[in-house]
Amino acid sequence: MNLIGLLSPAPLWLIGVPTGAFAFLVVLSRLANSSDHKVRIKSSRIALLVSKRVARLVGFVSACLLGLLLLGVSAGDYPVPIASVIKTLLWDQHNEFSFVINSIRVPRVLVAILAGICLAVSGYIFQCLIRNPLVSPDIIGINSGASVGAVIVLASGGTVSSLSSAAFAGALLTAAAIYSLSRKSGVSGSRLVLVGIGVNAVLAAVISFIQVTYPIDRIIAAARWQVGSLDGTSWTDVQQLIIGILILLPPAFLFTRNLRTLQLGDEIATSLGVHIERDRFVILLIASALAALAVSVVGPLGFIALAVPQFARLWIGRITSGALIFTAILGGNFLLLADTVALRLFAPVALPTGVVSAAIGAPYFLVLLTRYHRLRT
Questions:
Q1: pTM summary value
Q2: Which domains does the chain have, with CATH numbers?
């Protein structure tokens, strides 16, 4: 039955997903090429300069996210009409669909959105900070650090409740190690990348050692977690992600200006009054914590933090708060779409979400790597 399911993708999803993606790109391209005007919003306390083009892009991806949310909640082995979904979410909490929607599907959909936001923003910050489009938390070892913490807990028979804390701690310790090993008369982007790749290889070896050392029944759970999946997510995970985002995103927006200044080079940034090492460390810590937060809940989903920021920068080149918002919402769209496709494309067989995200992200990474190599040569 599983083989038949894998060999027989649902025709509606097989046609609908590429068609929807093409329409999304067409509309996005038209909005990105539309006329741009700046609107100044000023009050006694704040003064903002808002780009109408960026606002249109953010509004469009937000509307797409809302549509994907409704689709993710309504689609399943037990389909729920969109009207009933809206009714249940907004006012009728005690109808026949209430348990399926509120206890099973809504937490999973919200976790996908929030984790996608964390991974996309983390990748955006890393790429802007290091000035390298091929950098992301999963490339330089942050995700592997989280995996080591989680695998140790699962292999040693620890409880699932301690899994998130172990993964989060592992990611932050890895980020601290990479920063310390990269720091030699300041932290350069190229050195940090090389150190991160080396640390990533060491951590991969540690995971392999654990997998061949501990009993197979414990290793199966660890291997399943490493693929990346949203199975079993709950309102506790939603709460954890919301709290983390509320703590980490505000400083990420505050340091956007400093991040833009650091792009000019250390000498110019210093002349403009930026504390280079302090700001670089804080920005690196914020990006690592965002990645750790997502990985601790959904596992080390690959390529989201790499592909989404690059895709976002195709439409909004400058480093601005609007670009960060656009990237965050785009990340929520990407992960929610990947999870919905993983659940429904080969229904009733459900794929791990990490398989779908890698299937989309890996080819994009190869294309990006080829283009980057040509530009360098």
A1: 0.88
A2: 2-376 (1.10.3470.10)
